Amino acid sequence: MAYERAIFTTELHRITNVIHGIIAPHAKREPTDEWVRLVLEQLGGAKATLEVLTRMER
């Protein structure tokens, strides 16, 4: 279970970095861009799932 949790943690960091480093600045420049809103919603859902998985106990 520790290996899987480490993988989830790594992916959580990657998604968080993409959201904050790439998608959020784009959303700031183009707040009405439908594509960027969809990406933020989808990645936000994936991020929430990974956060739960990294906190799960056995």
Describe this structure in words.
The structure is a single chain. The mean pLDDT is 93. Helix 1 (2-29) packs antiparallel against helix 2 (34-55). Helices cover 86% and strands 0% of the residues. The chain is mostly helical and 58 residues long. The chain is elongated.
Largest sheet: none
Order of helices and strands: HH
Average pLDDT metric? 93
Which structural category fits the helices and strands? mainly alpha
Number of separate helices: 2
Q: What is the strand and helix layout of this fold?
A:
Elements: H1 2-29, H2 34-55
Helix pairs in contact: 1-2
List keywords for this structure.
single chain, 58 residues, mainly alpha, 2 helices
Q: TL;DR of this structure?
A:
The chain has helices spanning 2-29, 34-55. The protein has 58 residues and is mainly alpha-helical.
